[in-house]
Design brief:
The chain has 1159 residues and is α/β, with parallel strands linked by helices. It has 47 helices and 29 strands. A seven-stranded parallel β-sheet has the order 3-2-6-7-1-9-8, sandwiched between helices. The chain has a seven-stranded parallel β-sheet with strand order 16-17-15-18-22-12-23, with helices on both faces. Strands 24, 25, 26, 27, 28 and 29 form a six-stranded mixed β-sheet that branches.
């Protein structure tokens, strides 16, 4: 470590002890160095390093802190080699309690496993394994509830759980269970929730929901009342404007103040004031102050819209709203009961497996460390005495459970040292609660004014990362936009950054560039991302080609691609667009894929397959392998396998299914050969054998980003060689090694991106820094999809359902729903504001922000109302994207610290400027060639219209009712679950039932009507068909089939294939004669394919009820579909086709199509 000279605030943070200390460490303020120095100082003054508990947010951060401390101790030992104390501390460093909260809780529970009711050998289950386990347990719990439902559960199913299936109810219960984990005592929290609903009475202002709504309406009414009065006062300076608008402005301002006063009394008092009446504005022609007139009309309309919202938030008197809450109480009681049933079943299953998940670690630790009343337990006092101090890094991201643990261990915070920055709290989706940090930040005294032993706060404001130009721009943006109402902290003098980094010279100001979109109604259209990405790529290319100077380790050098990062809110799809455009522009790029190395399709598939080769009796790896693009089992096929042996593991079911399913049998044969190869090969040889036998490389290469996927597979082989060369053997050990690397995010090339532009999300960029940052795609709309749920769940306010009127089939928000939606939207916007802060503070020297939007001039004019320091939160709340806030801040700044440009997209060109020409300068030959190119007609227009994929059922002249049965249109949006009876099956659903019977029945039993009916009953009992389907299957038609010539051929054939799914490339000319020599992907399912004397016959069952001439005409409609089956059969099985047969089950007629008519 270099010699460290702390600033006064850093020195205070290092030396202050004997009390609770909160350090608010701004971006780039050196908080990790402060933590290190504080710990070393304590050690040098007499403490032992293992007497300090240090909690970090990630394993990587814990490892870095340990490494820094060890390096500094080693440096000090080299300066003073005889210092025995330093040498002892260096030896103790390995035992230092520096870990994540999960790591600490795991160690605590292992030490106290008997008190926690755990096996000493318990394992921590990873989230990727816990998720499917939770889903399976929830499905089981729901089945049990459906078997014996009480009235409360029936109401829950009829309201909250309505839909085509119970997936929405399952998802809701799992989400409630997840949100409950943020409470130290979930059972107490749930009891309070029920009490609020069951005892709802009196004025709505007595409930937390009413207070939440009234506070928001009151704030808004006060803001607009003041704004309208201010505009009325300005209007008085011009008599014409005052005459036209003054009286209306005053009237509405008065009404809003009356509303505010009523809100301070009660809900019902406020209801009497609503709705706010808006008189018509007077007519004004030739305004003496057009700007003021436009501003008045703009505010008037905005206020009018806001006032409509008041009526929606406060729609009825308290009596009606309280009654609705009481009426929803039984459903909420059932939902909470269902959630706790799941919790008990999930806990029992984990106990059986000797496993715990990450939430268990924290909750079990809380139960060990606190008594029921919340006070520290004897265990907490005993453990707490081991530590001189408890240090918590990234304190802004803790939740209530974690904070309870820290308080229990630290004697209610007396020796607690907390470091964080609430402006960088961006993990609320992981249940982080920035309010815990904020509450201390607002109530702790500054060090120079605090009383002895009182908790104190210390501000680290100096930024050692960024240039002054970047710091000034960041301060300008957030002085305008961030506040307690939007960001959950005021961006005041204490929050502002101070430039402390030493850079030579000056650089251009940070800038925001808006690229106008072509006229379009959809700003999220695909072309938007391409346009912005191409412009960014061109800009990056010019910056590097122009040798933009950057400073590295005090040395000025030209910019490299590896100095640049492109950050965005979400990189799922847009990141790949940027990657493609950068590559087109000749810019090397790293990242931008939807997943990392171990999470990529090809690598995750490979790891799952290796796990199955080692032990096939593992459900999750086996299902993941089967579902992968390499083996292509779909959900229906997996369900059929599961149904073969519903109570056994999936491998056993697969083996049973393989007796009649060729695809399953082929997979098992391949698996057997791979397992045999594994027994005699090392990891690298086995991996290469898998590549050859499964064609995984060409399959994954065809998925897109083929070169990247091929590179990943080759890197995996290098991993296998490294494992073998290290002297390790055994497939199981290799798989475990890979999983360990994945857990540690130890991905190949991580941190070594070379000279390439990095694309990443803002979340991934936290803690990193780059010389040049592009923040892109800022016009992407905020994601508010979560608010569409019928029940919202908030960690503090709790459950918030919509009210369902079962008689009228209507659904509308309850008081609780409105309150939770308001709070959740506010928290979402605050999180987005903090995310913007994290993004902008990653830049060291140069900062570029981009957005693509239609009609940017209109957007700028609209946001002028926010151009102030600070901008009104009530105006900023109306923003739909980050770009809105950034534009408002740029307008308020006026170009002093950050520039705003509206520019046509940049294009890569060899010249900086275009060459202007006149008509006379144009070469005649060039003009002729241009005109010739403009008149060019693409010769393959027919091929351009070809589909890339074609299913056999599409090759007909009218819809296929049987195919449509896969996705029937719901009769209404309020379809009730089958708890109180069943609906009549549609003709399409009856056809599907018959096909299922023909797919699974034992044809040898088709010797009599009773035998056929017995076989249908067997399929129903085994779960292949439902009872409703069994009732509508025509047993006579099936018996008639096997008594016919077609049926006899099926029974006596050499080889029979049922429901054979296929996918292959076929010549387009077979189905589209004008298309030329193109290829299309042909997919479909043959009902039946038989082989007789080396020739094939495809049989397709139809349940159409037609007779006579109509039947012949109907059969012709299926000729295209049969042509697809004919081509597929010959090319897949490599044998000649004799004919295709359409068999109409309704009357036993068979229509034959010879092969020569089809091919």
């Amino acid at each position: 470590m270099a010699e460290f000279s702390p600033t006064p605030s850093q020195k205070s943070a290092i030396e202050t002890s004997g009390r609770s200390v909160l350090v608010s460490a701004a971006a780039g303020s050196g908080k990790t160095r402060v933590l290190t120095e504080r710990l070393l100082r304590s050690v040098c003054e007499g403490g032992n390093i293992d007497e300090y508990l240090v909690i970090t947010f990630t394993k990587a951060a814990a490892a870095e802190l340990k490494s820094r401390i060890s390096d500094e101790l080693s440096r000090r030992i080299s300066d003073d080699p005889e210092n025995r104390r330093l040498r002892r501390q260096n030896a103790l460093c390995r035992r230092a309690q520096i870990s994540t909260i999960d790591g600490f809780c795991t160690a605590l529970l292992r030490e106290n496993c008997h008190a926690a009711g755990l096996s000493p050998e318990f394992r921590v289950i990873e989230e990727d394994r816990a998720l499917p386990l939770r889903q399976r347990i929830m499905d089981r719990v729901l089945e049990e509830r459906y078997e014996d439902p009480d009235d409360d559960f029936l109401l829950l199913a009829d309201t909250v759980g309505r839909g085509r299936d119970d997936s929405r109810l399952a998802s809701l219960a799992l989400e409630l269970h997840r949100k409950m984990q943020s409470h130290a005592r979930p059972e107490l929290w749930s009891q309070e929730q029920l009490r609020l609903y069951e005892s709802a009475e009196g004025d709505a202002s007595n409930t937390p929901y009413g207070r939440e709504v009234m506070r928001r309406v009151s704030d808004s009414a006060a803001y607009y009342a003041a704004l309208l009065s201010e505009l009325a006062a300005k209007a008085e300076r011009e008599s014409a404007i005052s005459k036209a608008y003054g009286a209306s402005l005053d009237a509405v301002a008065t009404a809003l103040r009356d509303l505010g006063r009523a809100l301070s009394v009660s809900w019902d008092k406020a209801i009497g004031v609503l709705p706010i009446e808006f008189p018509r504005l007077g007519t004004l022609r030739n305004s003496p102050d057009p700007e003021l007139s436009e501003r008045i009309k703009e505010v008037w309309n905005a206020c009018k819209d806001e006032a409509k919202g008041y009526a929606e938030l406060m729609p009825a008197p308290s009596e009606k709203l309280m009654r609705e809450l009481r009426e929803t109480a039984p459903a909420m009681r059932a939902l909470i009961a269902l959630t706790f049933d799941f919790d008990r079943a999930y806990a029992a299953e984990k106990r059986r497996r000797s496993e715990v998940d990450f939430a268990d670690l924290e909750h079990m630790a809380v139960r060990l460390l606190t008594d029921p009343d919340g006070s520290p337990s004897p265990t907490a006092l005993a453990v707490g005495r081991r530590f001189r101090e408890i240090m918590v890094d990234e304190y802004q991201d803790v939740n209530g459970v974690q904070d309870t643990i820290f308080r229990a261990l630290s004697s209610e915070g007396k020796n607690l040292f907390m470091v964080g920055d609430v402006k960088q709290s961006i993990y609320r989706f992981r249940l982080a609660d920035p309010g815990i940090f904020t509450e201390k930040y607002l109530h702790y005294a500054d060090l120079d004014t605090a009383l002895p032993n009182d908790p104190v706060r210390i501000m680290l404001r100096e930024n050692f990362r960024s240039r002054r130009e970047v710091i000034s721009a960041v301060n300008s943006v957030f002085s305008c936009c961030m506040s307690g109402k939007l960001g959950e902290i005021d961006y005041d003098e204490n929050a502002m950054l101070r430039a402390a980094a030493d850079y030579p010279g000056a650089v251009p100001l940070p800038e925001m560039t808006i690229y106008p979109l072509p006229d379009s109604d959809d700003e999220d259209a695909p072309g938007k991302a391409e346009l912005e990405a191409a412009a960014v790529a061109a800009r990056i290319r010019r910056l590097v080609d122009g040798a933009l100077p950057v400073t590295a380790n005090g040395i000025v050098r030209p910019l490299r691609y590896g100095d640049i990062a492109i950050l965005m809110r979400s990189a799922n799809s847009v990141g790949q667009v940027y990657r493609r455009e950068l590559t087109k522009a000749g810019v090397p790029v790293a990242g931008g894929l939807q997943s990392g190395f171990f999470a990529s399709v090809e690598i995750s598939t490979l790891i799952s397959l290796l796990g199955v080769i080692d032990n096939p009796h593992q459900d999750i790896p086996l299902i993941a392998t089967l579902r992968s693009p390499v083996f292509g089992f779909n959900a229906d096929e997996l369900s059929q396998i599961r149904a073969c042996r519903p109570n056994d593991d999936f491998y056993t079911a697969l083996c049973a299914c393989a007796e009649e399913n060729e695809k399953c049998a082929d997979f098992l044969a391949l698996l057997a050969s791979l397992r045999e190869k594994a027994s005699e090969s090392d990891a690298s040889a086995l991996l290469w054998h898998i590549y050859r036998e499964t064609d995984i490389m060409p399959v994954c290469t065809a998925l897109g980003d083929g070169e990247e996927r091929r590179r990943n597979l080759l890197l995996m082989h290098e991993y296998a060689k490294r494992f073998t060369q290290s002297g390790f053997y055994g497939l199981r050990r290799f798989v475990r090694w890979l999983l360990k690397l994945s857990e540690r995010s130890d991905e190949p090339g991580k941190g070594e991106t070379g000279n390439a532009v990095q694309i990443m999300t803002v979340h991934k960029s936290k803690g990193l820094e780059f010389p040049v940052v592009f923040l892109c795609d800022t016009a992407k709309r905020f994601n508010k999809n979560d608010f569409r749920s019928p029940v919202l769940v908030h960690p503090e306010l709790g459950l918030a359902p919509k009210y369902t009127d079962l008689e009228r089939r209507l659904e509308y928000p309850t008081l609780a729903f409105n309150a939770v939606k308001l709070r959740s939207e506010s928290e979402l916007l605050s999180e987005e504001m903090r995310l913007l802060y994290v993004a902008l503070t990653r830049a060291k020297e140069y900062l570029f922000v981009t957005a693509a939007m239609k009609d940017p001039e209109k957007k700028l004019a609209k946001l002028m109302s926010c151009a102030d320091f600070p901008a009104p939160p009530e105006e900023l709340r109306r923003a739909s994207c980050l770009a809105d806030w950034l534009i408002a801040a740029c307008l308020a700044d006026g170009g002093e610290n950050i520039r705003l440009n509206v520019s046509a997209p940049d294009r890569i060109s060899t010249d900086d400027e275009c060459v202007r020409t006149t008509q006379s300068d144009v070469d005649a030959e060039l003009k002729r060639r241009i005109e010739e190119n403009l008149d060019y007609v693409y010769p393959h227009a027919a091929a351009e219209r070809l589909p890339s994929k074609l299913t056999a059922t599409e090759l007909k002249d009218e819809p296929d009712l049987e195919a449509q049965a896969l996705a029937p249109t719901p009769k209404s949006s309020f379809r009730l679950p089958g708890l109180r009876g069943s609906e009549k099956l549609t003709p399409a659903e009856r056809g599907t039932a018959t096909h299922l019977v023909l797919q699974y029945m034992d044809y040898k039993k088709a010797c009599g009507l009773a035998s056929v009916k017995d076989e249908i009953a067997r399929l129903c009992a085994s779960g292949f068909i439902t009872a409703e389907q069994a009732e509508v299957v025509d047993a006579d038609a099936i018996l008639r089939l096997f008594a016919s010539e077609t049926g006899r051929r099926i029974l006596s054939c050499d080889e029979l294939r049922r429901e054979f799914r296929f996918s292959l490339l076929a010549p387009s000319g077979l189905f589209f004669p004008e298309s030329g020599g193109e290829k299309i992907l042909l997919q479909g399912v043959m009902d039946c394919c038989i082989e007789e004397d080396g020739c094939l016959t495809v049989i397709d069952y139809k349940t159409d009820r037609v007779r006579g001439e109509a039947l012949t005409e109907r059969a012709k409609l299926y000729s295209g579909q049969l042509r697809a089956y004919a081509y597929a059969a010959e090319h897949i099985f490599g044998k000649p086709l004799r004919e295709c047969v359409l068999y109409f089950l309704s009357d036993g007629t068979a229509v034959h199509f010879p092969a020569e008519e089809l091919l």
